[in-house]
Amino acid sequence: MEEFANKGISRRAFVGAGAFAAAAAAMVAGCSPENSLEQTEDTAPRNYRVDAEFDESQDGQWLPVSCWTSCGGRCLLKAYVVDGMPMRIKTDDTHEDSFENFQNRACPRGRAQRMHAFGADRIKYPMKRSGWQPGGGENSNGQMRGKDTWERISWDEAFDLIATEVKRIIDEHGPLAINYAGIPFYNCAVAQTLLPALGGYTWHLGFTSYGSWTATPDQIGIDNTAGEPGTMGTNDRLSMLKSDLIVLHGNNPVHAAAGSPSLHLMRAHEAGIPFVFIGPDYNPTAAMVEAKWIPVRPTTDAAFLSAVIYEMIKLDEERGDVVDWDFLYSHTVGFDDDHMPADATLNENVHGYVMGEYDGTPKTAEWAAEICGCTAEDIRWYAEQVGRKNKVSMYYAYSIARNNQAATLPQLALTLACMGAHVGADGQQFGPTYHYFAHNCGPNLVQPGEMRQGDVPEQAQNSVFGAFDLGYRAASSWKAMAEGHGPDGWTGEDVSKDIRMIWCESGGYLTSQPDVNNGIKAFRAMDFVLTQAINFKPEAQFSDIVLPASTPWEYGYDQLAFQQYKQFNRESFFFPTAFTEPLFESKPDVEIAYELAKRLGLDADKMWPYDEEQRQFDRILNATVLDADGVTYKPLVTITQERCDELGFDGHAQEGVIDYDELRAAGVYRVERTEGDNYGYIAYKDFVDDPEGHPLNTVSGKWELYCQSAKDAVDALGCPDKIKPYGCVTESAGGYQGLSEEFPLLVYQPHYLRRAHTTHDNVGWLRQAFKNPVYMNAQDAAERGIEQGDIVEVSSETGKMIRIASVLETLMPGVVGIPHGSWPEMNEENGVDENGSENTITINVQNVGSYNSYHSTVVQVRKYEDQDVPQAEMRPLRMPEGIEE
Predict the structure, then answer these.
(1) Can you tell me whether residue 600 is helix, strand or coil?
(2) φ and ψ at 586, to 5 degrees?
(3) How far, in Å, CA of 12 to CA of 556, rounded?
(4) 843: which residues sit within 8 A by CB, 6+ positions away?
(5) Over pLDDT 90: what percentage of the chain?
(6) How does pLDDT run across 98-152, given as a tens digit for each residue?
(7) Which residues form the 4Fe-4S Mo/W bis-MGD-type domain (predicted)?
(8) CA–CA separation, 423 vs 413, rounded Å?
(9) Other beta carbons within 10 Å of 584
């Protein structure tokens, strides 16, 4: 294999990078080339500003570049690049915006992307924590993680130290002693190749996004083919326009995914379709589409849906034509006693549950109104609207399934949809909406090409999914990891595996998992913590060795991770350009994995025999686009053999629909939609039209409103909580204590334009543009003497944090909104997180369905005693101490 370091720039035929290093050092905000880590009173105000003047007459060019933010907006970014440096950012201007062919416009996060890539806290070279030595035990000096000083080391020293410690841990404790704290689906180098080749690893229990949609979709018949649970259960954007009513249950794409997902809803509103929003706040998306608001407290959505099902049954008994009984009985099993599946072991079902046959409590509108905070009239009104007479699109946010009462919420949503026959037809759909699938689902009209792969060792192919399975049981909560055992109350093999190393790569697991304080304790309990990252993020702060990773704007990046997985929406696929050498001493993640594999006795050249530029070329050359017949995929690009040879790539001549160089210049290919075209997508249409001829992949071949296999799968995990095989309100066995005098407020965690998950919380431009708020109801704030802009303390049984009060009339009383993603900055003297990570105060109870309990947290809010404490937008970024240039 050609060594990574010797890849020729002739392979990169798009833009030069000759003077990049010097220009980058000068442009990184707040840093001088002489001492790029020094921060003084004079330089601190410049932390968030790029001072280079912009002149488009300079010898540069606009290039399409990657927006790797995990928000789901899927937008086109362009950078004006001069000698390897991005001087300005703009968004999609390749064509006039139209309904048929919309522009993929970037939000503030994308437009601030260069300050993520070139910010003051960019990790520039490998670093080792001064007090750490390999060998475990006292050598780890773990209590100093997050407090210690740092030493600059060479790449060779870093690789040797890491390989030595990884080998020792595997030899002494086994491969499952390594906890991979990243997103294994997104990165192929470490999680999908290197660690599995070493025998596997343990993954963190629970999904930060999916909630209980993680556990049951496959078993109950909800489409999971896209890899994002349930998202393929909704139709394309043109179908939505046939609806009589659009329901947003917890959704807020204006903040979560401000690109095309928001645009599609705006277009439906412009078409005059009425909207209903269900959730604790009247959020910006609800306001954009002028939705009717049904206020529902966090954690109570299962109760709300149960009551809607009850009221639909009662309305149908009174006047008929509300429930589509023929559809319900022909396409589902398990609704009532007369339609139970053959494998049922419990003589219960959703009909008996909502009627109160098992607990003596009918799930009436009045019952749910008291729990949810809405009115009984709202519930009955909604039950009538979602009856069979209307065409209804019901979109659910994953967020409503991230609590201890929602283990079977997907079955309740499925039951409601089937009762009204709102599935498998134009203008009728149900399911979660997420990322690039939101409000425009279906197979991609442009498909990326296959990329050549190396020879993955056999043990890697056989172990990675086993590692995931073991991870569900062994990787417990932070508290359990800190104390050296599996999650409390769980049983089963490997629950008590001893985790000795945390390997942090993609994502921000310390910040995004509940219970940060115990997360810090878990980090400090390890023999070894390794982080490879772009910025000095919280995981890096509590590590022993930190490796500088390059970004997708830099040559050699592992394109399979961010490019192939994320760079699309249904009608567009993005082909961004890398335009410069890796910044400072950073390396692509795939190169880091390659070098470690060599030192760990693996055949790295067979595992990664191809450089990433060749693989990126494969991805473009082999890309296909759906023909106008809506059935056949054909080659996307036209290229000659001469052009392949000029570029220096192994390729072949072919005829497609767009010239290769034209595609690279545009950075995107989109398929224009028109009314009546052959590109439409109706989820489950084949099954709905012919349930016998196109059965679902379930035990019964139908949607399972009672699902024995779903219950058996969860029970097999050994969790102390036990779920019912049908949709209901889950009674959790632990963790959620309920509201009390000490903690009288419920928490929910919306997304926010300041960041995407945890990404961008370090970007000063966004910190200055968007404060770090706590949303409070005006009445709750007044009772506590809190006014708009006050610094407040939010406390729970797990921790304390401070933020700025945002006092609202559009939020339910008794509810607190804490926008997700702040990086924790712990003041260990008083135990307060001064940057307000919401997961400082969330509980971490690993329970049914392998999901976390984010929204099962109760808190108190008080005005903070020190109103002069500087907030994040007024403080310098946290930087490593002890480094000398």
Answers:
(1) coil
(2) -70, 155
(3) 10
(4) 514, 515, 735, 736, 796, 797, 798, 853, 856, 857
(5) 61
(6) 999 999 999 999 899 988 888 888 999 999 999 999 999 999 999 999 999 999 9
(7) 60-121
(8) 12
(9) 16
Closest C-alpha to 362, from 315, 306, 418: 306
- Closest by CA to 511, choosing from 796, 826, 748, 791, is 826
Q: How far apart are CA 654 and CA 11, in angstroms?
A: 20
- 364-377 burial code (b ≥16 CB/10 A, e <16): bbebbbebbbbebe
Strands 703-704 and 202-203 come out as: unpaired
Burial 515-530 (b: 16+ CB within 10 A, else e): bbbbbbbbbbbbbbbb
> For residues 260 and 176, what is the distance between their CA atoms, to the nearest angstrom?
40
CA 475 to chain centre: 19
Could you give the residue ranges of the DSSP H alpha helices within 548-697?
559, 565-566, 589-599, 604-607, 612-621, 641-647, 660-666, 685-689
Architecture of domain 211-433: 3-Layer(aba) Sandwich (3.40)
CB under 8 A, 24+ apart: contacts of 484-493: 484/525, 487/205, 487/846, 488/720, 488/734, 489/719, 489/720, 489/733, 489/734, 490/717, 490/718, 490/719, 490/720, 490/846, 491/718, 492/716, 492/717, 492/718
pLDDT digits (tens, 9 = 90+) for 326-372: 999 999 999 999 999 999 999 999 999 999 999 999 999 999 999 99
Please state, in angstroms and rounded to a whole number, the distance separating the CA atoms of residues 444 and 624. Answer: 10
Question: Looking at domain 130-208+458-611, does it have CATH number 3.40.50.740?
Answer: yes
| Rounded (5°) CA angle 294-300-303 | 90
> Which residues in 470-552 belong to E strands, given as ranges?
501-504, 528-533, 545-548
Query: How wide is the angle at C-alpha 837 spanned by C-alphas 836 and 842, nearest 5°?
Result: 115
Give the amino acid at 769: A
For the stretch 393-420, pLDDT in tens is 999 999 998 888 888 999 999 999 999 9
Confirm if 297 and 373 have CB atoms less than 8 A apart.
yes
Distance CA 825, CA 807 (A): 24
Tell me the DSSP string of 386-420: TSTTS-EEEEE-GGGGSSTT-TTHHHHHHHHHHHT
Identify the weakest region by mean pLDDT among 235-249, 665-679, 733-747: 733-747
3-state secondary structure of 330: helix
pTM, two decimal places: 0.90
Amino acid present at 175 = P
> Are residues 847 and 524 in contact, defined by beta-carbon separation less than 8 angstroms?
no
Q: Where are the domains of the chain?
A: 4-117, 130-208+458-611, 211-433, 745-874
Fold of 745-874: Barwin-like endoglucanases (2.40.40)
Encoded tokens for 753: 């334009």
Other CB atoms closer than 10 Å to residue 227's CB: what's the count?
Answer: 10
Candidates 222, 214, 176, 212; CA nearest to 195 is: 176
Instruction: Say how far residue 560 (Cα) sits from the centre of its chain.
Output: 17
How far apart CA 70 and CA 436 sit, in angstroms, is 10
Residue type, 818: I
3-state SS, residue 858: strand
